From TrEMBL:
Recorded name of the encoding gene: RABGGTA
Keywords, ordered alphabetically: Leucine-rich repeat, Phosphoprotein, Prenyltransferase, Repeat, Transferase
Gene3D superfamilies for the chain: Protein prenylyltransferase, Rab geranylgeranyltransferase alpha-subunit, insert domain, Ribonuclease Inhibitor
Organism: Vombatus ursinus
CC per GO annotation: Rab-protein geranylgeranyltransferase complex
GO biological process, one term: prenylation
Name of the protein described by the UniProt record: Geranylgeranyl transferase type-2 subunit alpha
Catalysis: reaction(s): geranylgeranyl diphosphate + L-cysteinyl-[protein] = S-geranylgeranyl-L-cysteinyl-[protein] + diphosphate
Domain Rab geranylgeranyltransferase alpha subunit insert-domain intervals: 245-344
Function recorded in the entry: Catalyzes the transfer of a geranylgeranyl moiety from geranylgeranyl diphosphate to both cysteines of Rab proteins with the C-terminal sequence -XXCC, -XCXC and -CCXX, such as RAB1A, RAB3A, RAB5A and RAB7A.
InterPro entries: LRR_dom_sf, Prenyl_trans_a, RabGGT_asu_insert-dom_sf, RabGGT_asu_insert-domain
Enzyme Commission (EC) number: 2.5.1.60
Amino acid sequence: MHGRLKVKTTEKQAEAKRVEREQKLKLYREATEAIFQKRQEGHLDESVLELTSQILGANPDFATMWNCRREVLMHLETQKSPEEFATLVAAELGFLESCLRVNPKSYGTWHHRCWLLGRLPEPNWTRELELCAKFLEADERNFHCWDYRRFVAQKAAVPPAEELAFTDSLITRNFSNYSSWHYRSCLLPKLQPLPDSQPPGRLPEDILLRELELVQNAFFTDPNDQSAWFYHRWLLGRADPKDAIRCLLVSRNEACLTVCFSRPIIVSPGIETLMLFVDKSPLPVEWRTPDGRNRPNYVWLCDLPTDFFNGQSPQHSFSLMWGEVQKECVLYKGLKESWCQDSATDEQLFRMELSMEKSTVLQSELESCKELQDLEPDNKWCLLTIILLMRALDPLVYEKDTLKYFQALKVADPMRASYLDDLRSKFLMENYILKMEYADVRVLDLSYKDLTLLCHLDQLLLVTHLNLSHNLLRSLPPALAMLRCLEVLQADGNAIESVEGVVNLPRLQELSLCDNRLQHPLALQTLASCPKLSLLSLECNPLCQLEAAPEELRAMLPGVDRILT
């Protein structure tokens, strides 16, 4: 291999090697057994260090041996004077370095070095940084050494600017260095304090523009290396949104209050606390998720006392406090429901804000990537980046072009066709949510879109009619339970085998699941939790071939007036 001539060995030479291996194996086993025996008897002395050195010098990845050494060192620390123990530690550091020369990517060796230095009163962090530089000089992509360098830099309080300069030197030498690019993503947000108006995690514009230029040079130098493309995708990402209550919905008929948050939370003492005030008086309530699982969720709801709605008061005010965030909603007499929802632009929902300068840079990058794609038509990273740049600039304006590039990307990268279908579905749903936001409607038609998954369902809290017909869906996910106002759901012509997500939908009246892959009536048992369901259409499903299916369905769903099979 690699141009080396394979030299044939004689039977005598092969036999000599076999005997040598057996002798080494015998010594290895004897040393291992001796170590375990001493450990069992509690003899934690320097002889154990010597025996483990023999084992680890040949095989640094024997984790139990490192554990033995740590036990011995902790014992000797109590037995020896500080000067004697310092000499022992210096020898241990030298031994570790020799092990790293045997295997520079040994998990156990790097971990043991972290442990050892963490116990020293005054470690020589400068020497450790030099050690990292030496090993990264030999292999700049040794992620074990990068992890250790981050540990050392943190302990030594090295300024982020100095570490960033170090990554500059290695990236300049070799753009194909994912660990170095990743380290930059950790360092850049720490470079300088952000203005109060800028969310944490988002880069100042001057730094972002500089990084975009650097990474563009990288992927034009080596278009097939994925590390720079990944870093570019991180640069295009958006920071975590500020905590916000996106929507507050009060229903008189259901005596229920529903809340949608900007991120998934768990409402529990000591984790997240919500305070509800009704007519300016605090009201203790029990919070739950729509699907009843009480796991991290965007949507939480609580029951309200029915006597609140029986009085003669002309209105009721509801105020919810979540930390420093507050939202209010008023339910007037005669109304069945009321809500308070913040209007949101696409930049607030799905992409970063663009200044004129940033938009100009991204537009230039888009044109450059298109030129590169003409030269490298099968480069999947270039195609994906074109899609992401279009999304960052304007997802609605570039919607048709984005879909065309997805088709080309699936041809260039058929191994990830399913992932790309899901990503395409995610982007399409984002676009239609934006269109619905601008039109201020509660009806959403997603039929004939070749969707393979449903996402951002927390944005559809107020939707009453949803059409998912003629897509490529295989199930209706549990997140569908967040659609608390949904009255009509159409999902004909998919490949649905499970409807576990259609659960606890208080207003669902009509459900159409024709021409799917529902095999048995038991696949529909969660529908019993939808109290107002009156029409269920199941034509052209495999379960329709079962003679007993109609009777089983009527027995399982007694509240449904019409079941069409």
